[in-house]
Amino acid sequence: MTAPSETVRTVRLRVDGNREAQGPLTLGQANTLQWISALSDDHFLSLVQWIFTVPAGTSLERACAALAALVRRYESLRTTYHDGPDGPVQRVAGTVELSIEVHQRPAQPDRTALPRELISRLRERPFDLSRDLPLRFAVAVEGDLVHAAVAVYSHMAADYVSLTVLGERFTELLAGSATDEDEPPHQPLDRAARERSPQGLRQADAALRYWSSILRRRPRCVLPLRAAGAESSAQDGGATTLAPRSADLYSPRAAAALDRITARTGASRAMAVIAALAAVLATRCGQRHVVLYSPAANRLGMRPRDYVGTVAQDGLISVEVDQPDYDALVRHTGTALLRANRNSVFDADALQREHDRIAHERGMPMIRDGVFNNISGNAPPDLPKVSTAETFIDWWTPAGFTNLLLFHLVRTEQALILELITGDNRHLPDAEMEALLLGTERVLATAATGNVPLDDVGDIAGIEPFARDGDWHFVDHSWIQLSEVNRVLRAALTGPARAFVVGGDEPDGATIIAHLAAADGITDPAQAHLACLRRLADSYTAITPHRYVLHPGAPADPADPQAWRELPVLAEGDGRSAAAGSEAGT
User: Fold this and answer.
1) CA distance 376 to 160
2) Which uninterrupted H or E stretch holds 448?
C-alpha cells in the first residue's frame, strides 16, 4: 500500500548485454528449479532479498546506472527458463528493459524500516520465470538523492553468496572502484559447459557415491521423539497434523563465546555452532550419528567472489558424535563440513533415483528432515543490530513449511542469531524448540572457558535424554516405535497384520517381522512392502518391516507371535525385489 505522502514512479532503462545465448541448465539451476516448482508462487523460500549499502550523496541517476550495470554484467539477471527437447534450458537475453521503482519518501530514523517495506512490496507478485526478468529493484529518494535501495531476486537468479557479490559490486560502482570495463565474470552457461566436461562428470559421480554411503546408514529421523498426541493418533489411524513454527535465538553471549572457541580451535564459527548443535541433538535423542542437509553454495573451479547464479545444492553433513570432547567434535565437524561441500555438485535427478532406491531397500524414506543453512556470511549489511545484552527467543509462524527442523545461522558477529523452523509443531513443540536453542547456546558459552567433555553436555545444556519405554527399539541405526510400525501396517494393509521385533543383542542387530493376512491387492511381500512405504510419510519413528509373512487368515489373538507362526504360510520374503524397487518413489 502506498504511504499518504509517497509518490511512486518507474524508471525504465534499456540494458545491452555482451551476448545472447541459450544452453542447458547448470546442476544448481536444475536442482533449484525442481524444488521451486514444488512450492507455491508466494512461498518465502522461492525469493531472496537484499538491502544495498548506498553512499551518502548518491543521485538517482547514478544509482539507476549502477543497477543497470549489474544486469549488464551478470547474465543470470537477464535469463529466462523454458522447456526444451532434452529438458529445461536457460535463455540469456542480449537486450532487456529494466524497470526500477522510485519512491519519493523522506528518510526515517529507523534505517531498516523503509527498505523492508519496499522489499515487502516487491515480493507481492510471483515471478514468471519464462517471461519476467528474475529480479525487481526499488529505490527511495528525497529530492534527487537516494537513501535506500533494495532488490528481490528469484532464487533461480541468485543464491546467498550471489547476493553479497551483487551488493558489493553495486557499492563499488557507486564508489568508482569498479567499472563496466572489468574482466567479465564466469557465467552460468560457462558453468554448465564445465559440468558436462569429463572432470565435471567425474566430480558429480563422486558426489553420488558419497551421498549413497551416508544415506545407507543415516538414522530414520534426526530427532526421533514421541509426538504430542501420538497415542490418540495411533489409535484412530489418523495422520500427523502439520503446524509450522519458528523460533529465533538472539545471544550476544554466544557470539562472544565463538570468538574464544575459534581462537582456541582454529575452526570457523559455523563449525563451532554445528558441533554444539550436534552434541545437543545427540544427547537429547540418543543417536550418536547426526546427519544434516546443508545448502552449499559450492563454487569449486571458478572465481568464487565473482559468480552470480544459483549454485546452491544440498551438502550432506555426517557428524559422528562419539568424540571425547567438544574440541575434538569441532575438528571432526570441520572435516565433515568440508566433505559435504566438496560433494554438493550432483545431478539432482540421479540423486533422487538413488534416494528412492535406498529408501526402498532400507524401508524408510530419505526425507530432508534436518537442515542447517549458514547464511551468516551473506546477511545484508543493514541487518538490525541486537540492542540487548540478554539472550531471548522471538517466535513467529511461517507459511507453507514442511521440514521437521531447519536451522538458519543468520549471524555470528555481535550476537548469535540462530533460527529454528519446524513444519510440525506437534512433533517439535515450543518447549522442545526452546530447549534445543538454549542448550546450544549454553554449550557454546561453557566451551568458551575451556574444552568440554561430551559426557557433560546434558548437564551443561539442561537437556535430558529422551526417556524410551519398551515400545522403542534401535533398528538399522535408528530409534523406532513398534506401535508406529503397527499403525502404518493398519493404514497400509486391508487385512489384519502385526509387526514384531526379533533379535537385537548386537547394535543394529534387531529386525522387524510382519505377519499379515493376505487380502485383495496384498498377496505377496512386494505388494505389502510398497503399500507400507507409501504410508510412512506421516511418521518420523516408523520403518517398514524387514520381512513379511503372509497367511490365509489371522489368529484369534493378533498380538501373539506364536499364534501367527502356527498358521499356514502362503508367501514370505523381504519385498525388496528389483521390479518393486523401480516403484519405490511413487
Assistant:
1) 10
2) none
Residue 4 pLDDT greater than 60, yes or no? no
The H or E element spanning position 84 is: strand 79-84
Cβ-proximal residues to 115 (8 Å cutoff; 6+ apart), any chain: 51, 140, 148, 149, 150, 382
Task: Please name every residue paired with 82 in a beta bridge, in sequence order, or none if there are none.
Answer: 89
Amino acid at 388: T
Residues whose CB is less than 8 angstroms from the CB of residue 333 and which lie 6 or more positions away in sequence, other chains included:
267, 271, 274, 275, 278, 317, 319
Residue 469 has a pLDDT of 94
pLDDT at 299: 61
If one counts every other C-beta atom within 10 angstroms of the C-beta of residue 381, the result is: 12
pLDDT category, 2, cuts 50, 70, 90?
low
Residue 454: CB atoms within 10 A of its CB come to: 22
**CA dist., res. 323 & res. 193, Å (int):** 42
Length of the chain: 586
Question: How far is it, in rounded angstroms, from Cα 516 to Cα 528?
Answer: 9
- Could you identify the residue written with the cell 524508471? 11
Q: Give residue 217's pLDDT.
A: 95
Strands (E), 223-382: 245-251, 289-296, 313-320, 370-374
Integer Cα distance of 179 and 171 in angstroms = 11
Dihedrals phi, psi of 165, to nearest 5 degrees: -55, -50
Q: What is the pLDDT of residue 348?
A: 87
Contact of 127 with 151, CB cutoff 8 Å = no
177-235 residue pLDDT tens: 988 888 889 999 999 999 999 999 999 999 999 999 999 999 999 999 986 554 434 33
Report the SS3 class of residue 163: helix
Q: Rounded mean pLDDT of 107-114? A: 86
> What's the predicted TM-score (pTM) here?
0.83
CB contact at 8 A, 100 and 64 = yes
Q: Which amino acid is at 534?
A: R
Angle at 172 between CA 166 and CA 177, to 5 degrees: 140
Cell 538491502 sits at which residue? 51
Q: Which residue spans within 356-431 are E strands per DSSP? A: 370-374, 392-396, 405-411, 416-422
Residues facing residue 426 across a β-bridge: none
